[in-house]
Write a structure and sequence with these properties.
Blueprint lengths: L1 H17 L17 H16 L10 E7 L4 H14 L16 E6 L10 H10 L19 H5 L8 H7 L3 E9 L3 H4 L26 H7 L8 E5 L25 H11 L4 E4 L2 H5 L8 E5 L18 H12 L6 E7 L1 H7 L3 H21 L5 E7 L2 E2 L1 E3 L29 E6 L27 E4 L5 E2 L3 E6 L8 E4 L2 H10 L11
Parallel strand pairs: 1-7, 1-8, 2-15, 3-4, 3-7, 4-6, 5-6, 11-12
Antiparallel strand pairs: 2-14, 8-14, 9-13, 10-11
Helix pairs in contact: 1-2, 3-13, 4-14, 8-9, 11-13, 12-13
The structure holds 2-acetamido-2-deoxy-beta-D-glucopyranose and zinc ion.
The site of 2-acetamido-2-deoxy-beta-D-glucopyranose has 3 residues, from loops.
């Protein structure tokens, strides 16, 4: 321990001595990378830090699972440069908050029926421990998409971390930047044969007697016991005749105001509930007075961070408040936090927004780490599936990650420039002009809505099929190393936290 502290101290002094500030806007690395001692010292420091860390075999009283939706490994590498350049550095050498976690693994993401996962089958895997069919939430693969009968058959329902944590007397919470009924958060509490059944108006007309996802959040056995729910999607909780705080009409056909019902249900269950609608109300929330909070901060998904205004809380702000509320429970808590708009930005091939959302997600993880003690809190950061974005070319260190390869000095075989980030498919396809590739020099890549080039024209870029990274810190974080199926994750969490019906550390 003492040795590692000395090494860290020496390293810090070294970094300080070597620091070069960025001159004339040209990014610089903070180190003298031409000096071999830089690399030796940096590697030795990493080695000593690893050797000095004993395995943490405490019980995980609290668990926070962070999920970057569509946050591929390529997205992480590109976001480092995006962030680093903001600090006047080259960027490649920067670490996102969770990239310094002591243990990492790779999770295989395919669904039972499809080779590339969607957020629903994947959510079912990493929250409930069972792989499922594409587009289905909280159900085994015995249920196909749209099979309402299958949804109603209790034999096909799968329970997961939220339920297990509640049974162990822990507080539970969900934080997301999407609608709280969207596939990813829904996987934490709902069972739905189709992820699109977010409100009753989404169900097919022929009178299917299947509960929509919003209804399950308010009335479901697990949903009704969640202590904190923060995100977007007010429309799915309001009747189509009723306006929300911003004057936008609800979407429900059954005339139910589920927000009011949520408050009444919570009161009847003995909670002290409240409902909040914007950043100010979140900021002013008295966590001594309320132990159960529904925060619906937008009509639909919450806006991208680059387009948000003062009314919109950031993911970090929501995460902080959620932890403040949940940590009052003496038995601990399970919190699920989704950075949901990385994925939607990638689907639009708007790489700038995707990287910015990833940076915001990394900030939320950093916020959480400041509030918890990793001696008794397990923090996992992962993703549900990849995307088709690639990071290519041989540009100079510190080049604009959102710009052209080699600053447009060396062109492709067709003598036209190409971008460092591009997609295999999606709406960024640029039609050829008289058999020549579109000249990207004509485009405004500084626009936050610029659609990065894709090879194949389709309206929504698709997910990718390769593995996603898993980063872990805290009790039993070492059991998240290696390469495994995605549905292993909640089993390992349950082991560390002594919840669920499988093997736990408490039985040993
Ligand atoms: C980007 O697109 C969004 C949604 O399509 C739009 O609301 C916004 O005004 C656009 N922003 C810019 C700077 O073009
Ligand atoms: Zn997606």
């Amino acid at each position: 321990m003492r040795l590692s502290m000395i090494v860290i101290f020496i390293f810090c002094v070294y970094v300080k001595a070597r620091s070069v500030n960025s001159k004339n806007g040209v990014p610089k690395t903070p180190f003298d990378e031409k000096n071999k001692d830089h690399w030796r010292l940096q590697a030795q420091w990493t080695l000593r830090a690893k050797l000095s860390k004993p395995q943490n075999k405490n019980i995980a009283k609290n668990v926070i699972l962070f999920l970057g939706d569509g946050m591929s490994i390529t997205t992480l590498a590109a976001t480092r440069v995006y962030l680093g350049r903001k600090y006047g550095l080259t960027g490649e050498e920067v670490k996102l908050s969770f990239e310094s976690f002591p243990h990492t693994g790779l999770a295989k993401t395919y669904c039972v029926d499809h080779n590339v996962a969607d957020s629903a089958c994947s959510g079912t895997a990493y929250l409930s421990g069972v792989k499922a069919n594409s587009q289905t939430v909280g159900l085994s693969a015995a249920v196909k998409r749209g099979d309402c009968e299958g949804q109603r058959n209790a034999a096909h329902s799968v329970t997961g971390l939220t339920d297990w944590a509640q049974k162990a007397g822990k507080a539970t919470g969900i934080v997301t930047t999407t609608r709280v009924t969207h596939a990813t958060p829904a996987s934490a509490y709902a069972h739905s044969a189709d992820r699109r059944w977010e409100a009753d108006a989404d169900l097919p007309k022929q009178g299917l007697r299947c509960d929509d996802i919003a209804t399950q959040l308010v009335r479901g056995r697990v949903g009704s016991h969640i202590d904190v729910v923060f995100g977007g999607g007010r429309k799915n909780f309001l009747p189509k005749s009723e306006k929300d705080i911003k004057g936008q009409l609800g979407y429900r056909r059954d005339n139910k105001n589920l927000i009011r019902e949520w408050l009444l249900t919570k009161e009847s269950l003995g909670y002290k509930p409240t409902y909040i609608r914007n950043r100010k109300e979140l900021y002013n929330l008295d966590v001594d007075r309320y132990n159960s909070v529904l925060g619906l901060f937008s009509h639909d998904h919450m806006p991208y961070h680059l387009e948000a205004d003062d009314d919109d809380p950031t993911l970090s702000e929501m995460t902080q408040k959620a932890i403040e509320i949940l940590s009052r429970n003496k038995n601990g808590y399970f919190l699920f936090v989704e950075g949901g708009r990385i994925d939607t930005a990638h689907h639009e091939t708007k790489a700038r927004k995707a990287l910015d959302e990833t940076a915001e997600f990394a900030k939320a993880v950093e916020t959480a780490l400041k509030l918890v003690n990793t001696e008794d809190t397990l923090v996992i950061v992962t993703s549900d599936h990849s995307h088709t974005m690639t990071y290519s070319g041989y540009s100079e260190r510190g080049s604009d990650i959102l710009g052209l390869v080699n600053n447009n000095k060396v062109n492709a075989s067709d003598d036209l420039p190409y971008t460092t980030l591009s997609y295999a498919n999606g709406p960024g396809y640029k039609p050829h002009q008289s058999f020549r590739r579109h000249n990207l020099m004509l485009d405004d890549m500084n626009s936050l809505n610029y659609t990065y080039p894709s090879l194949v024209p389709i309206p929504r870029e698709t997910h990718g099929g390769e593995d996603v990274a898993v980063f872990a810190i805290g009790p039993w974080s070492h059991i998240f190393s290696g390469n495994y199926e995605q549905n292993y994750i909640p089993h390992a969490i349950a082991y560390a936290a002594c919840i669920g019906s499988g093997l736990t550390m408490c039985e040993l």
